[in-house]
Design goal:
By secondary structure, the protein is an all-alpha fold. Helix content is 75%, strand content 0%.
């Protein structure tokens, strides 16, 4: 097994989860990861020498999604449920689905850059500087995206909760 194959095999599930949160669609996530891994394989000698190959390939996934979105000239379609969540057995499963569904529906209304910034910052647990590097913008822009996204999420979820 080559170095790339071993690397990709250990990271495929995480890349798919990451891509799913960025794209909002299982199909789009699989396409973005497949394209990014194909390009990474072709350039593996260069990619593997970078400081953080994982971050490099995640950036490739984001770029692939943005390029596909621009080519298609359309927006994402929201999904009913975010997969691969850890479930607490003591909690009512239907409440978790309702909550997950509400959060995801609200997240899907965020602009693309804000959603990507929130996913990278909180789901991937990256620092603002790392998110800025992946999104190709300044750290202050990332902070602004995250702040605006969290404000919008709070307002929307509070409105839904009041209903």
């Amino acid at each position: 097994m080559t170095d790339f194959e071993a690397w990709a095999e250990t990271r495929l599930a995480g890349l798919l989860r990451f891509a799913y949160l960025v794209t909002g669609s299982q199909q789009a996530a699989e396409e973005a990861v497949q394209s990014a891994l194909t390009r990474a394989c072709e350039r593996w000698s260069r990619v593997s020498r970078t400081e953080d190959p994982d971050a490099y390939v995640r950036r490739m996934v984001v770029n692939e999604h943005v390029s596909g979105w621009r080519r298609a000239g359309r927006r994402e379609v929201p999904v009913a449920e975010v997969r691969d969540q850890v479930r607490d057995t003591a909690v009512d499963p239907t409440a978790l689905v309702d909550e997950s569904d509400a959060v995801w529906r609200v997240c899907s209304t965020l602009p693309r850059q804000q959603r990507a910034a929130v996913v990278l910052r909180f789901y991937e647990d990256l620092e603002y500087a790392e998110v800025a590097s992946l999104l190709g913008c300044s750290e202050s822009t990332v902070r602004s995206h995250v702040h605006r996204a969290l404000t919008a999420l709070r307002a929307a979820l509070t409105t839904q909760e009041d209903r």
